Amino acid sequence: MDPQNLLLCAISAAALDLCVLVLIISAYREKSSAKKRWQKISADMELVEQGASYQLTCDEILIGRHASADIRLSDMSVSRYHAMLGVSDGVWTITDLGSKSGTFVNGVPVKKKILHENDIIIIGSRRLTLRKRRDTKK
Amino acid sequence: MKSIRRCLHIITLFLIVFIAGMGYLVYVINRDAPFYMMHSDHLQLGMVYDRTGDVLFDGMGKGTYEDGHFLDFGNLIGDEKGQMDNTLVARNIDKLNNYSFSEGLVREGGKAAIYTTLDHYANRQVYNAFGGAKGCAVAYNYKTGEVLVCTSLPSIDVTKGYENVADMESGTLISKVMYGTVPGSTQKVSTVLSALEIMGVDALYAKRFSCSGQYINKTGKPIDCHQGWGHGEQDIQQAVENSCNPFFAQLIEDDDMPLEQIIEKYRRLGYAVNDDKPTYFDIDGIDCFRASTTLTDKYEFSTQWGCIGQGDTLVSPMQLMMWQSAIANGTGKMTMPRIIDRVSDVYGDISSVSTVEFSEEIFSPSSASTMKQILLTNGANHYQYSIPGFTVGIKSGTAQVKEGAEENALLVGFVDDQRKPIAFCVLLENKYSTPVTAEGIVTTLLNSLG
Amino acid sequence: MSNPVSFVFSSAFVIIAHAAMLLNVYSSGQFTDVKDFAILAAAVVAMDIVVTILMLTFGQHAHTADFILLLILGASVIFQSCFGGVSFAKKHFITCIAALASCRVGYLLCRDYKWLQTKKKFIWAAIGIMMIVILTLTGSRSMWIDLGFMTIQPSEFIKPLLILACATSIQEQQNKHKILKFDIVYENLILFGIVAAVCLLQWWCRDLGSIPTFAAIYASGFLLRICYPKAKFSTKTLIFAGAAVAAAAVVGIMFAPAYVKERLFADIWNDTSGSGYQQTQALIAVADGGWFGKGPGKGELCNIFAHESDIVFATISEEWGLLFAVMTVLMLLLLVAIPLVNPPRSYFHGTMCAGVCAAFTVQMALNIFGSCNLIPFTGVTLPFIAEGGSSMATSGFMAGMIVAAQSPVIRKIKPKKSAKTAKSRKKGGKAA
Question: Could you point out which of B7, C69, C245, C340 has its C-alpha 20 to 30 Å from the C-alpha of C63?
Fold first, then answer.
């Protein structure tokens, strides 16, 4: 194989690699813009407990004691699959999944309830608040 | 969130497994590419050289050579065309592959080569010494195992192609050195070695049998001697020198020579006795026939002839020569012959170097030294003038082939000289049809080896 | 479009990569008429530019997956045009356009999963129709329908449909029904039935290569389904499942019909002119090509049957070198790996991406490892690279699914009051 062909082969391979690199970088850039977009869709809410906050990064969030739960509350008063948070059109909804101790929003036991900003959700003995996300917390 | 992360885990799992597979594939291709390339139609083969650097096979076909340059080694070295399977090139073609995965096929200046131990000059002299007669000759250094001469006639010039393959005489496309032939009286070497092993030196020397030209064995069949008027009473030394068939028939029948022990000693020598599975020596990839014989009843004609060198017995010239090395070395261990000395890869780096190897002990050192003495005495008494200038231990043989229509002459032996440790075997077919003698070929062989 | 800078850079570098490949073809390729090369170059660059401009009008949020697809398809056209001498592969170019169109269709169908979930019945109906088509039109030992001007492989179309069926039925997992002592999810049974039926049908067609693909799609879907939302990957379960699969494989091999066993254990090097012909020629070509290849159009594998589909990896290896071929494969992997960088926002889209990843990687593995003799050789095509209209269209559709997961529609933000009714219908409607 003569050196000229080798060089061209190397150039086309390098161009391909470079293109792949650029595409990966742009995928990462899109990640951050997708995040912004998500904040818009999810009304930029977060769930907070004393000292802890939970980011809501997908449209269905399971709350429970089980290790597979998206928000895991290690507390015996919480059922393994306690409640489900869902978002649609910027509105969050909570659905009770037949828990033992029930789900309360602002002190009222609910089966399914639309949530508003600063609603207090009581799950077992845990007390969670839905509120606008604050940038100071990560 | 965990649920999404589970999806990503599954994607990652698939990707990891696939990438691992891909990595393994690249590794396998890298490793096996030369093997794949061997099946390609576009091979770029390297060279085979003799010990002095003379070309024995030119894979590129670029060099120019005088007519008949490749003739004397034709059916030993062979080529890649597939007509001859049991040849050095055919069996070691992977070593000649001028290819590496990173370089691709090297069309110019590839350095893949096999450096053999062969001596092209001596081989050609031996080939010419046959003077058109058929047969084969092989010689090697019994200290190092380096095969120096290995020619087989008729032979083929591989550069001339195979158009007239149908008209070729049988045996043209094989090296007879590697294939079984009737050993004739050279078989008596094996029989004497077995007797030495079974009885010991003193007991064997005490045995004396008489020959009157014909011996009627215990089952009533005549064993003829080649000398019609007989040899009279002889001991083992005289019997070997006379190559006396009645003596050996009586030796086999002797009560001190139980058949099971003969069979056992024969097997140790490497014979496939009776229904043993036939096997091969591997000489740098070339299959070499291993001796075989049939021994059923020691009072029977065919078994006795088997031990004398006719009957069902077949031995390859290569193996006859290898026994000589075990005798000449005085150790009872054969020096294993080797044709490839070293191999270089496509870049010219030496990739493998062969070393001298010995077989298991096939007979005891004391039997070896006694046998050596017998053969040396034979050589001194009978070959002093026909093979002048060398101290040889030697045994001749005459083998009747084609139902007795032709007789082949054989000579096996060794040079008892530390500076020239050569063991040899010469087979001259149909010896009455040619003025050439086996002794003459041996003389040429020994003289042309420097 | 949210990232004008990366959009411009991506499109520019895709064109640069194609141009570099074309330069390689021009200088070391083998062509008699420079016109052949000019047509190829014009077609590829035109495709890049037109698709980029079209993308601007689509108003998607993320474009990386589209650009990767464009990069792969352009490279694919160049590869296919070079086999055995440079000449523009018109048919392949048209199927590439079809793949892009089908990608767009896939995106539009899959971006809004809540809408798609209401159309679940249609997906199942489509699978059923495909199966009937296979049953009635292809015949028992064939996988092709010959339409005269083109042949169609209907089993290909079942792949994306099966992914969608797996993904749409995920939510159903919440609706368990107690029958005797078991919690049964009806849709699980239905789905299993569908997969079993499809696999049996493929067996009947002797399309053995596509069975692993379906199995992989179902396995990834099933794993994710049993985890939704009430379980996790328990080590015990996974080990048990792995052992079950291994045992099934062993039993399957032990009781496999003779012709399958023959394929599994055949040594291709003993039969280089018979059944091992394609594979041995492919491996020799790979060896001949080395790392950097012989040069575009200079290969000799193009004389072998199925050089442009079943053993296309070897053909590319021979002409472009193993390095380039492996890089092409990595580009395909990049497409399915995009969800790892930019994760989907819903479980549906995650499941879909996993399904697409399963389908692509298994097909690639069967094709590449099969043609290189690591596993038995089956006639599976390499997505996007191999020639074949059905395969191209379905692969494009599956790429569309990944695009959809990148820029999903989770319903536009409307005034909160009016959204109420739609929202309350959501959960209840699905369960019905």
Answer: B7
* A5 has a chain C CB within 8 A of its CB: yes
Q: Given the structure tokens 């977009």, which residue do they identify?
A: A37
CB-nearest to B25 from C280, C357, C374 is C374
Contact C229 A62 (CB under 8 A): yes
User: Digits of tens for pLDDT over chain A (138 positions)?
Assistant: 567 777 888 888 899 999 999 999 988 888 888 888 888 878 888 888 887 888 888 888 888 887 778 888 888 888 888 888 888 777 888 888 878 888 888 888 888 888 888 888 888 888 888 888 876 544
B354 three-state secondary structure: coil
Rounded-to-integer distance, Cα C135 and Cα C155, Å: 11
Query: Could you give the C-alpha distances from C282 to B66, B272, C2, C300, C317, in angstroms and in order?
Result: 41, 44, 45, 10, 9
Instruction: Indicate yes or no: CB of B1 within 8 angstroms of CB of A68.
Output: no
**Interface residue B108 vs chain A (CB under 8 A):** no
Measured between beta carbons, which residues in chain C are less than 8 angstroms from residue A87? 410
Taking CB atoms and an 8 Å cut-off, how many pairs form between chains A and C? 184
- Whether residues B36 and C287 touch (CB distance < 8 A) is answered with yes
Which chains are within 8 Å of A by 3+ CB pairs?
B, C
Pick among A42, A58, A66 to test the B interface (most B CBs inside 10 A): A58
User: Helical H runs in chain A?
Assistant: 3-41
Token pair for residue C148? 């005269």
Q: C150-205, pLDDT tens digit by residue? A: 777 888 888 899 888 888 887 776 666 666 666 667 777 888 888 888 888 888 87
CA distances from C406 to A41, B114, B171, C113, C114 (A): 14, 61, 75, 13, 16
Helix axes C322-341, B2-38, angle to 10 degrees: 170
Residues 314-353 of C with CB under 8 A from B: 322, 326, 329, 333, 336-337, 339-340, 343-347, 350-351, 353
Would you state the structure tokens that stand for residue B264, as one six-digit string?
């056992």
Task: Give me the residues paired with residue A86 across strands.
Answer: A60, A93
Q: Is B6 on the interface with C (CB under 8 A)?
A: yes
Any CB–CB contact under 8 A between A61 and chain B?
A: yes
pLDDT in the model for residue C50? 93
A-chain CB neighbours of C293 within 8 Å are: 9
Question: Of C287, C290, C329, which is closest to B22 when you measure between CB atoms?
Answer: C329
- A94/A92 Cα distance (integer angstroms): 7
Would the ipTM clear 0.85, i.e. be above it? yes
Q: Where are the domains of chain C?
A: 4-408
What residue segments make up the domains of chain B, in order of their start? 177-448
Query: Could you tell me which CATH number the domain at B177-448 has?
Result: 3.40.710.10
How far is the CA of C191 from the CAs of C168, C230, C249, C428, in angstroms? 11, 19, 22, 22
Pairwise CA distance, residues B444 & B429, whole Å: 17
Contacts of B164 (CB under 8 A, 6+ apart): none
In angstroms, rounded to a whole number, what is the distance separating the alpha carbons of residues C127 and C109? 16
User: By C-alpha distance, which of C49, C57, C46 is closest to C93?
Assistant: C46
Residues of chain C with Cβ-Cβ distance to B17 below 8 Å are 361
Token pair of B111 as six digits:
């350095």
Q: What whole-number distance in Å separates Cα of residue B371 and Cα of residue B192? A: 8
Nearest Cα of chain B lies from the Cα of C121 at a distance, in angstroms, of 24
Give the chain B residue whose CA is nearest to the CA of C323: B26
DSSP state letters, A94-118: EEE-S-SS-EEETTEEESEEEE-TT
Residues of B in contact with A62 (CB under 8 A): 3
User: pTM of the predicted model, to two decimals?
Assistant: 0.77
Closest CA to B22 of C323, C321, C382, C369: C369
